Amino acid sequence: MYKVDIQPDTKEATAIEARRNQEKQRQSRIFNTRYRTMGVDVEGLKSQVEERKLRENAEKQRDEAFDAHRIQYDKIAQMLEDEEQQRKRQLHKALVEFHQQEQEPATRREWDLQDPAALRKGQPARVSDDDPRCGPASMQCFAGEDMNGAARQKLLKEKNRRDLEEQRAEREKALADRKYADTLEDKKRIELDLRALELARLEEECRRAKAMAVADFNRAQAAECVEQQRLAQQREQDNNYTEIYNHLTGDILTENPDMARSLVGPHRMVPYLWKGMSPEQVEAVRRTQKEQCKENQRLREEERQREAEWDRQRHLAARAGMVMEEEVQNFHLQLRKSQDAYNQELAEAQKAHLQHLEKEVYTNTPTAQYHLQFNTSTR
Length: 379
What we know:
This protein is mostly helical. 76% of the residues lie in helices and 0% in strands. The protein contains 9 helices and no strands. The longest helix has 101 residues. The chain is flat. The N terminus is likely disordered.
């Protein structure tokens, strides 16, 4: 046998390399005390989530592209299948018509063997002495009596020649028909390709026309919005000018005193048209304000006394809290001292137990080589 260098399988090598990388990553996670005791690798999880999202988006885009190509190819395949079925139906129809018109049963060479009226059309065993149908077995013609041999051979050769010419003509016609069919099929395939290209071009033109129409519509909408905004600003500005003029020339800013008198009575005034008070009314308002100031001072004094009482209560509560806190601290100090003493006793007992184990129980101490055989794999 010859020695052949077998190339390693790419997929198998990739899978082996991926497993090795996963094993190294697993060892780095498991043998790392911080990650093993404190929690998972958050950054690693985030990177895995991002990679999964990117992979899902890429797969989604690839599936959408495949779906679009598949739909287009299905349409083209359906068109080709319809054309192929139409061509087969036409060829079958032409073949049936040709059989019916040009290949009648009576024109075939073997019709004399399949003719149902052959017995009725037949002749007697011997019509005359020169009947070519009478052979040696017919007991009608014997040796030495073949007078039409040369003519019969000539007729047989002529018949063979005609048969050969007919076969050659049929063969040439079949070849021409096959060549014509191949030509039609090539033309049809080219026509389908051109039609597919034309459909793609029309689809691209429709897409561009649609984009242009949308852009024109958006520009028209933007222009209309700008014009509406300008008209709205113009109307608002005109209304503002009109309102300013009405205020400037109205009775409110001119302070017409007659406008404040009410029609209900002479002592009544219209509030939104009233422009001022009399001196007596002003003096009454000032007296009321002084009384309100005195009342406010009294209320502030009461509030100050109430705040002082609350401050005193808070001070007493703070002192009581400090006393309680000192008592708690003293209790904790005593508890800590008792715990320290108990821990000291436990430490001495543990130390004595360790000395007992080292000197009497664990006499065979393991070496460093013994510990190196552990934690070599994650499984």
